[in-house]
Amino acid sequence: MVSRALLVSLLPQSSGLLMSPLLTVVVALLIGYTVMNYYRRARLLRLIGLIPGPPGLPFIGNAIEVNVDHDEIFERLSGIRNLWGSSLGFCKGWLGSKPYVFISKAECVEPIMGSIKHIEKSQEYDYLHPWLGTGLLTSTGLKWHKRRKILTPAFHFRILDDFIDVFREQSDILVEKLEKEIDKDPFNIFPYITSCTLDVVCETAMGYQSNSQNDKDSEYVKAVYEIGSIVQNRQAKIWLQPDFLFKMSSYYKRHQECIKILHDLSNKIIADKREEVRQEKENGREEAVMDDLSILGTKKRLAFLDLLIEASKDGTVLSDEDIREEVDTFMFEGHDTTSAGLCWLLLLLGSNQEVQDRVVEELDSIFEGSDRPFTMKDLNDMKYLECCIKEALRLYPSVPMLARQIEEDVKIGDFLVPSGTTAMIIIYALHRDPNVFKNPEIYNPDNFLPENIQGRHPYSYIPFSAGPRNCIGQKFALLEEKSIASTILRKYRIEAVDRREDLTLLGELILRPKNGIRVKLTRR
Ligand code: HEM
């Protein structure tokens, strides 16, 4: 009886609730959302299912295949691509419930890189946020557009002209430091080059003298390496991806220590620059007017950081945090990429003496035996050296792969890659397509002679990426590489001790050999 009375008393209420228009709408929306999601997911599964690739396990996909020591992750990824994607130029894979396509053929790269629709960075870049925030490399949408507009003038060619002095000074310091290795046992050249490129970017972009060349064991450089390997581990291992699990892992403590080292330096650089700007204002010096491009390069060198501080309008347009994320981004992208590019170049020149001789002949014809410092014109005249640099970036692209989040279906060949997929462009494999580069493993700078580039697919060689999100620093990088390499080669003959095939490649954020590059130097 009691329960019947209770039921009766509840019924009008519950039926009243059921009839409530609000609840009906909420329930309908929930059902609609679930059904839509189901169909979207079913469609995604069906379309991805059509693409060739290794079969994945439920829930974890191919996570086990890439659950290897971090030294081996890059090799594993390349292996999957070689097995499944070499003829088609693309294949699929699953990491947990996330679908990926791995792309390594120019025709398959074009629909993504050539379109302004696919400029969103994928989740893989999120693990860089604690360090780089959402600076130019990692940001998306409107924020990225605005920042790119503000920062593009900092790499204007007239500004680059002003950087030549720094390239010269730092290259001279480098050869002076290398002097102690002449005619001695083989040594690892990587730390020398990295300190040099770090000093170059600090002074050119930040107007800051880091003097790393006097301290090869810089803790900043070490922290960059370590954070790179931690990020790669998070990218490949699904259980390290959720923040709460990562925080419980053994990597977290070191991750935080590295972030502190990295941010301490960028904060110091910004504080010093702010103080300099304040003093300049106090001394009544003319303020830099960033909107007026015509003044760039005509007065005191306007570093990238000056532009940022100008653009910040005392924190109203860009906060201190905004400035810091760009400083961190440019410090990293601006030195680690060129350092790796140069070291690979030196390895290749050191293992191909006839190519090295041709570079030296070119330098002799430019400098005619004089030891005068190089000028911008000299750098522009180093045509064959440029081919050597480009060919080194073909075999060993500093950024071996990049990723985009596909937010709109895209047709690649006969397949439709659905929105929600992550596209990984494997630049390392793309540059080894035998249909584009005959004997792709051979170091052959002639690949970049003007007559040999003609007719080549524009997306077959993209060390600096391509399209709207290409590398903002590519001209800077080429000039810097020419400056440093030519300064070394004018003084020393380089002989590689390590053989290419014996090196373990770490395809982290930047492509490096695990144990550096050992060379011998002799005086010319
Ligand atoms: C050999 C040297 C270099 C190589 C191979 C290289 C390569 C690349 C690549 C492949 C990207 C696209 C990355 C992605 O989408 O994930 C990129 C972006 C970028 N690079 Fe470079 N880079 C080099 C040097 C530099 C230098 C010297 C600077 C600055 C001084 C720089 C600053 C940047 C920035 C800020 C971005 C992000 C651009 C954007 O998304 O708008 N890079 N670089």
UniProtKB/TrEMBL annotation:
The keyword Flavoprotein does not apply. Heme binds at C471. Its cofactor is heme. One of its GO terms (cellular component) is endoplasmic reticulum membrane. It is a peripheral membrane protein. It is found in: Endoplasmic reticulum membrane; Microsome membrane. This is Cytochrome P450. It comes from Laodelphax striatellus.
